[in-house]
């Protein structure tokens, strides 16, 4: 949990808005450090977390969370965290063996046009299933869904429309029905303004996904490299964009920060106030 | 900084995690010491050498076990193939097992071209020594007459069980001797031998998983005394010979075949003691977004651009180098921070005994007003007098 980011977003593990869809996106950069922040944030806030870790192995998330002060193995044992390890489950589909049961949630690998229905069923069972708890189990806060990351699904051949449907279903389930929060990571590649129309399909796919999700979200954290080039001390810039409705008019507020990622956290500062410069 | 990682491992896992990845050092009570590996000083990862010491330095000490290094090939696949051969040769010298997969040349051809290691302490299987013909006792022959003070020092072992150095040097003008090469176990995958109805990438993935499982590189298998590393070298993935149309069309139809394979490769590597080097002809792939997806699914990524055949070959700025090297991606493994390179303008040079990667230095700008010393600059100064020799620069009017 990055304390500076908490003060920027005006949240804390004790008080945070519910029913929010937070979109973390990046362009030619890596915003996965923000996913680690939200994971440790919601675990500390005693929420019930469903984490779809598609990009990396469980040990990676566990090691990073250890440095941020949260133990994923303990959370899993206590039932606070439901962890879906995409790398492990995909092998059962990509290299099927006779006696191994295929993972249901990743069956889109076998047949991409099927879509992400099974993955949604998995999310639904872990979010809704928590309500029918047996007596004596610990009471956790509202459910939170974290996805790292959606662009891996595009790389695995899933259609952009299917991913948008999946995010819509999850949002309806988590944000509206259960009044929990949802955090998703989307990664883009190309330049923002593409003038040529005969562009690549892949690029259009992730851009379409980003635009669709930006429209749906309440809070967008967009991470990019510095416009002036590569710098070892400042790792990039982050744009925070709130979408709030005040009265009838939607209100959008944007802030721009630069950041540097350390071993145990990240620091955010206004443009030009990096410790390397001052 | 291995000590802090040790304490972290102890507090977090009270029982040994069986399904952990190869990143975490399994050092609760017994140290895994696999020859040819060393823990990283930054975050305690297990590292292997790529065979090129300057590339090891660029990657933060070495290639972490369980990761993929993507090399975007240069135009004629000369230097990327060279790095792949260095990687495999390092595996032979460190007694690791090899897995080579190609679609174009037979894997044996690549293995026969491995460069010869230079060091003396590389294990060479010696032929059985002939018994001494004379009956003289050994100590009289071995007694030193001049340097007798060094008599009692231990003798240098010329045939070690395993090479304990990390990173070796190779002589590219010679190929590795057959005895050394055949001492290493090598698994081959030659695509024309595996004609399957499914895609060639899934056949490769299944073959790799079968090798990992059969030879015991899986982390799930019970810990035995000796573990080894599997070095996987995949040559020219994504080229048309793998049954992919990534290089043929602007908008390929099955663009996710290669990315799905890379995802499965990452899953296999994270759960076993293996490390992979993949070369990819990225100059044939028109779709830049697809290259971005491919790069994100690999951990380390570098790109080579050689000067051969381009006009830069004769450019005096680049006369000391053979090509440029770009670092496309550096991973963050088990920690938040990455080890970013200091400089982004790197150039490489292949010398006979070393493949050096260094910061691109422009040669000093020697104009006539600054210095009269002429180093025979290839930039011909066409003097107005029309004289041909370059030494007349000092006499320009």
UniProtKB/TrEMBL annotation, chain A:
- Entries under CDD domains matching the protein: Elp6
Taxonomic classification: Eukaryota, Metazoa, Chordata, Craniata, Vertebrata
Q: Which GO terms describe its biological process?
A: tRNA wobble uridine modification
- Cellular component terms (Gene Ontology): cytoplasm; elongator holoenzyme complex; nucleus
Quote the pathway field.
tRNA modification; 5-methoxycarbonylmethyl-2-thiouridine-tRNA biosynthesis
Identification of the protein by name: Elongator complex protein 6
**The family this protein is said to belong to:** Belongs to the ELP6 family.
- Is Iron a UniProt keyword of this protein? no
Q: Which InterPro entries match?
A: ELP6, P-loop_NTPase
Report the superkingdom from the record.
Eukaryota
Tell me what organism the protein belongs to: Xiphophorus couchianus (Monterrey platyfish)
Q: Give yes or no: UniProt keyword Cytoplasm.
A: yes
The UniProt keywords, alphabetically, are: Cytoplasm, Nucleus, tRNA processing
Subcellular location(s): the record lists: Cytoplasm; Nucleus
Automatic annotation (TrEMBL), chain B:
Keyword tRNA-binding appears in the UniProt entry: no
CDD domains linked: Elp4
Pathway given in the UniProt record? tRNA modification; 5-methoxycarbonylmethyl-2-thiouridine-tRNA biosynthesis
- For this chain's UniProt record, which GO biological process terms are given? tRNA wobble uridine modification
Database matches in Pfam families: PAXNEB (PF05625)
Q: Which domain of life is it from?
A: Eukaryota
InterPro entries found in the cross-reference section? Elongator_complex_protein_4, P-loop_NTPase
Cite the Gene3D superfamilies for this sequence.
P-loop containing nucleotide triphosphate hydrolases
Any GO CC annotation of this UniProt entry: cytoplasm
**Keywords of this protein's UniProt record, alphabetized?**
Cytoplasm, Nucleus, tRNA processing
Does the UniProt entry include the keyword Glycoprotein? Answer: no
Q: Where in the cell is it found?
A: Cytoplasm; Nucleus
Family recorded in the similarity comment: Belongs to the ELP4 family.
**Protein purpose:** Component of the elongator complex which is required for multiple tRNA modifications, including mcm5U (5-methoxycarbonylmethyl uridine), mcm5s2U (5-methoxycarbonylmethyl-2-thiouridine), and ncm5U (5-carbamoylmethyl uridine). The elongator complex catalyzes the formation of carboxymethyluridine in the wobble base at position 34 in tRNAs.
* Entry protein name: Elongator complex protein 4
This chain is encoded by the gene named: ELP4
